[in-house]
Design goal:
globular, two-stranded antiparallel sheet, binds benzoyl coenzyme A, mainly alpha
Length: 353
């Protein structure tokens, strides 16, 4: 690990103690406990200890030895997750200035700020693996790191804000509840906090949809149109079918992922269809049907060609989302520089004293 990375990891550990490290580590001085040096034990023993921890449902902590592929896998998923939270601020942020009332505006602002917070917990958790936020963001800007496909669709009406909260946060929470038990400690603890906030997000979105669906014919049509446009992209959030999923087998073995893409997608459909029924909206899937025998809804096939297009950078808003993020980073550069200069000045003064 470079000196810079070590400094960054150290800072992330201290900054995010509440979010990612458990009580035991915090009482030991905000620094995670270190496992015995990998140099002291033979590789088979280290691997056996790692496998045992995973099997026992113990958490893998930043100082623990872990296989390289595990480190890469956790980092890939956590950095994508962090990018999703932050890029995900854009479709809703688009409506802050046009929210229909001051009350709605304050709720929406708080919600979008929560998403920024989720991004920060996750970047901090990912930094415990020896990378830096700057490196993760550079990979995002270079098109090397992905973020959730759903955020490449436009938010065209106020009802879209409702649909995003109800469906997108609803889908995210189904996944994230299972990720509270992920094997990497900092990720799992970040998920506990994030899930509490996501459940509020889901409810505020559903409440917006409920009000619109009970409003004028025009408002109900607006709610239905939003459901029509966001339903299928929401199902895509869970990723490809299990049989097509490149990372699932390894991630499930390591307990990085706790439930499969298809299992989680089915759970989302089963819980969301009755919610649409209650508010009198229709899920846009002619094949949707309750399967009495299985106790689940059968549903139609996702347009996987569209999914592939979107995750390859060719969705309706991919370029716009990335360009906005790059612009925001460039615009904030002077603030970061000023903070560094300020910090350096104080460090020099402290050392001189
Ligand atoms: N979008 O082997 P697979 C939120 C990629 S934000 C884009 O099944 P894996 C919110 C996948 O990365 C919450 N890419 O992958 C924020 C892989 O490509 P690479 C977001 C996708 O990792 C603001 C390839 O396809 N939640 O709540 O086993 C406002 C093969 O897939 C997608 C998370 O990030 C996709 N949908 O499973 C409102 C959850 N699906 O990396 C709300 C954390 C697949 O080889 N992530 N790909 O280039 C996960 O749980 C898993 O990574 C996934 C995919 C289930 C998404």
């Amino acid at each position: 690990m470079s000196e810079k990375s070590e400094r960054i990891v150290g800072a992330a550990q201290a900054d995010s103690a509440g979010a990612v490290f458990g009580e035991a580590e915090r009482s030991a001085g905000d620094v995670p406990s270190r496992a015995p040096s990998p140099r002291c034990a033979p590789p088979e023993a280290l691997l056996a200890a790692f496998d045992r921890k995973v099997a026992e449902e113990s958490r893998i902590e930043p100082g623990d030895w872990m296989p390289d592929d595990y480190r890469k896998g956790v980092l890939r998923q956590m950095s994508q997750h962090a990018h999703s939270e932050v890029i995900g601020m854009q479709p809703e942020g688009n409506w802050i200035t046009r929210a229909p009332s001051l009350h709605r505006k304050t709720i929406l602002m708080a919600k979008v700020q929560d998403e920024a917070g989720h991004g920060l917990y996750l970047y901090s958790a990912a930094e415990t693996l020896g990378t830096s936020r700057d490196d993760m963001i550079a990979a995002l800007h270079a098109g090397k790191a992905k973020y959730a496909s759903i955020f490449n669709y436009p938010s065209l009406t106020w009802a879209d804000v409702g649909a995003i909260g109800w469906l997108v946060d609803g889908a995210a929470i189904v996944n994230q509840v299972s990720l509270q038990r992920t094997s990497y400690g900092p990720y799992s603890r970040a998920m506990v906090r994030i899930c509490k906030e996501e459940s509020f997000h889901q409810r505020q979105g559903y409440q917006i949809m409920m009000v619109l669906a009970r409003g004028s014919a025009e408002q109900k049509a607006m709610a239905q149109d939003a459901l029509d446009r966001w339903w299928w992209p929401s199902l895509m959030m869970f990723g490809p079918h299990d049989s097509e999923s490149a990372h699932s087998a390894k991630s499930m073995q390591w307990k990085l992922k706790r439930e499969s893409n298809d299992t989680l997608r089915q759970r989302f459909v089963d819980q969301t269809v009755p919610q649409a029924d209650i508010i009198g909206l229709t899920v846009p899937d002619p094949e949707l049907k309750w399967n009495e025998e299985l106790g689940h809804y059968d549903f139609g096939e996702i347009d996987w060609a569209e999914f592939m297009q979107v995750i390859s950078g060719n969705g309706p808003c991919n370029r716009q989302r990335l360009a906005h993020h790059i612009r925001a980073k460039d615009d904030g550069q002077w603030v970061r520089q000023a903070m560094h200069v300020f910090e350096e000045k104080h460090r020099a003064r402290r050392q001189a004293a």
